[in-house]
Write the structure tokens for this entry.
Amino acid sequence: MINNLEPIIFFIKLGQNDVPLLGEHGLPQLIPRPIGKDIGELVRKGKVNDLERFAEIQIQQEQWDWAKSYLDYLVELEAVQQYNAELPETTQDAEGNEVPNEPKPLPVAPERPAVRTTEEVLSPYMLAIEKLRGVTFKGVNVSLNEANQNGLSALKSALDLAIEFGAEEQFFPVNFNAETSQGVQVLPLDNAKEFKQFGLEFVLSRRRFFE
């Protein structure tokens, strides 16, 4: 078996002189499987920080899983070869006739999956990730969600009312409590021009998800 370890040598614990360390039943020991987190679950919970790092870990996990299946294949291969080597050419049936024994077929080595990029791993979630990361305004990443949309609408209605009663100067500055991927953050808006600029950038950024 040791002679067949070259494809997974980077996943095996090595001792002195790069000799594979053996564990239970004399089998080579694999390095620990990388510990990551479920990317889909992170996105569903709105936690989009460090996703690239977790994507890298998932790539490593995929390769480790293949290495584990390859090691299992080697174990099965050795067992089948030993069985076939000890198998008599023939056996006698109930009537005393010589019947040829059929050797077990050799197992097929698992194909190594292509090493994916972080972009490929994150691709199924990119729409949700972009909505969560949202639009950046005055250093705050405002998520492009319905709650922020409703908050902007309510603020616009309040501003229209203030303008109607000639109280626009008293309306500003105003704080917008923005939902972000890091929780609620306060976005200060100093005047009507700034508010309109933020509102326009938010609406235009959010609209592309519905086109």
Helices lie at 39-44, 51-86, 118-122, 126-133, 146-164, 168-171, 192-207. Strands lie at 90-92, 98-100, 135-137, 140-142, 174-180, 183-189. Residues 51-86 form the longest helix (36 residues).
